[in-house]
């Protein structure tokens, strides 16, 4: 097992045989423009570990490549390289090689393709998130003071801005001429597959996608970065094009969660950002230049009124969507789970049965328990064909033909909750077995 420190550089290297099984790399491992030429063998990176910013940009895999079970940090890059730039770089590097190796190196470089994946396997790879302590040196008071500004209007990380447009693995521009296996891969940030060719060769079976905000507190499924939402939308389109329906549903659920942070960020922009000092300097300066102070006072009052109106009017939309989204996720995992709504339905039957029992005549007997069960099921499943006589007998036994108004109100709530949960069960079954 080979162990490399930070900044291991193999840029432009030519490999006839490459075996990095279980190798350990630090941050900024660089294989840019390298080429692997073993036609009858395979490149082995199985179970290797890479730190953040591992780069294989323009790496040419002229043989089968295995990265199965490997782990990457954030900003892993497998982007394609322009062929002309790739070959020009090879010519420049060949000049510093010993003369007896130049011809062989240039022949291999001319035969390499810096845009093509022939057969490459990333099965069970974990593309992790960046591990940075964003607020370790701050005091507790500063953390509390900056909590909402960072949560609702988080500035994006500039740590890797010069190298990559955003967090997550990138495979931009690759041409998939052979199988590109991403089965059971775990992405902690949405990857970038922009501009890939022949996407039908992309296998995403069992792949999972997640997201975490780029700044502290870095909650799971929370970000205010619109670029993240755009990546997820592009991934959904890609999944739809290759008919990966399970992946498409997972990405739709992820998009719903990511949308909440953006909704709250838009509200924050309208209510709080107008009071930023730099935004207020110019209007205040113009008002002060006018004779008298009435204009400034009027402008301040108008600004306060506008902010209050935007706060109370605008908070409804993100708040309602947040509540509905969280309920949808908790009750049915966004329509993907049959078990969750079934569990909640059975739990609701028990809960409403206990609630009905508080208004029933206290009769501790097996007959009374059966009557309460029949009454509860009749209210929970109103379209089921219960025996009318059995229901009448249960009402007579429990309430002596005098049903309290509170029981009628509970029944309405029971019917509404049951209808929603039954719909979610049917909807999840339909999603699971949808054809076409």
Short structural summary:
The protein has 436 residues and is α/β, with parallel strands linked by helices.
Description:
The strands form four sheets. The protein has a five-stranded parallel beta sheet with strand order 3-5-8-11-13, with no helix packed on it. Strands 6-9-12-14 form a four-stranded parallel beta sheet. It is 47% helix and 7% strand. The chain has 13 helices and 14 strands. The chain is of the alpha/beta class and 436 residues long. Mean pLDDT is 83; it is low at 156-163. The radius of gyration is 31 Å and the shape is elongated. It has helices at 83-94, 99-111, 140-145, 147-152, 226-241, 245-271, 277-289, 294-314, 316-332, 339-357, 366-380, 388-399, 405-432, and strands at 14-15, 35-36, 42-44, 60-61, 64-66, 71-72, 116-117, 120-121, 126-127, 175-176, 180-181, 186-187, 202-203, 208-209.
Could you outline the blueprint of secondary structure elements for this entry?
Layout: E1 14-15, E2 35-36, E3 42-44, E4 60-61, E5 64-66, E6 71-72, H1 83-94, H2 99-111, E7 116-117, E8 120-121, E9 126-127, H3 140-145, H4 147-152, E10 175-176, E11 180-181, E12 186-187, E13 202-203, E14 208-209, H5 226-241, H6 245-271, H7 277-289, H8 294-314, H9 316-332, H10 339-357, H11 366-380, H12 388-399, H13 405-432
Parallel strand pairs: 1-2, 2-4, 3-5, 5-8, 6-9, 7-10, 8-11, 9-12, 11-13, 12-14
Helix pairs in contact: 1-2, 5-6, 6-9, 10-11, 10-13, 11-12
């Amino acid at each position: 097992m080979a162990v490399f420190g930070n900044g291991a550089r193999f840029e432009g290297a030519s490999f006839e045989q490459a075996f990095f099984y279980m190798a350990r790399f630090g941050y900024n491992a660089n294989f840019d423009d390298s080429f692997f030429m073993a036609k009858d063998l395979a490149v082995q990176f199985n179970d290797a570990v890479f730190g953040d910013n591992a780069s294989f940009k323009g790496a040419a895999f002229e043989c089968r490549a295995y990265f199965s079970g490997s782990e990457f940090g954030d900003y892993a890059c497998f982007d394609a390289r322009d062929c002309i730039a790739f070959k020009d770089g090879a010519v420049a590097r060949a000049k510093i090689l010993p003369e007896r190796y130049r011809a062989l190196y240039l022949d291999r470089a001319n035969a390499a393709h810096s845009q093509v994946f022939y057969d490459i396997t990333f099965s069970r790879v974990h593309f992790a998130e960046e591990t940075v302590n964003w607020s370790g040196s701050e005091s507790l008071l500063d953390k509390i003071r900056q909590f909402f500004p960072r949560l609702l209007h988080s500035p994006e990380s500039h740590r890797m801005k010069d190298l990559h447009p955003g967090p997550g693995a990138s495979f931009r521009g690759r041409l998939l001429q052979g199988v590109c296996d991403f089965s059971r891969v775990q992405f902690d940030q949405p990857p970038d597959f922009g501009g890939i060719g022949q996407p039908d060769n992309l296998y995403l079976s069992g792949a999972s996608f997640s997201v975490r905000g780029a700044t502290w507190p870095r909650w799971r499924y929370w970000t205010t970065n619109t670029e993240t939402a755009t990546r997820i939308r592009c991934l959904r389109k890609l999944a739809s094009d290759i008919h990966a329906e399970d992946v498409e549903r997972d990405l739709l659920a992820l998009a719903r969660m990511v949308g909440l942070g953006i909704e709250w960020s838009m509200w924050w922009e309208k209510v709080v950002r107008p009071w930023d000092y730099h935004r207020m300097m110019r209007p205040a300066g113009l008002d002060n230049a006018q004779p008298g102070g009435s204009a400034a006072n009027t402008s301040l009052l108008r600004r306060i009124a506008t902010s209050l109106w935007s706060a109370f009017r605008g908070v409804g939309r993100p708040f309602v969507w947040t509540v509905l989204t969280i309920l949808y996720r908790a009750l049915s995992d966004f329509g993907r789970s049959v078990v969750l709504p079934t569990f909640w339905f059975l739990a609701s039957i028990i809960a409403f049965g206990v609630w009905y029992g508080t208004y029933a005549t206290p009769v501790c007997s097996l007959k009374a328990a059966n009557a309460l069960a029949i009454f509860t099921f009749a209210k929970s499943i109103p379209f089921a064909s219960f025996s009318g006589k059995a229901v009448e007998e249960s009402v007579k036994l429990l309430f002596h033909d005098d049903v309290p108004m509170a029981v009628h109100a509970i029944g309405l709530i029971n019917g509404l909750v049951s209808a929603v949960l039954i719909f979610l069960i049917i909807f999840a079954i339909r999603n699971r077995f949808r054809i076409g």
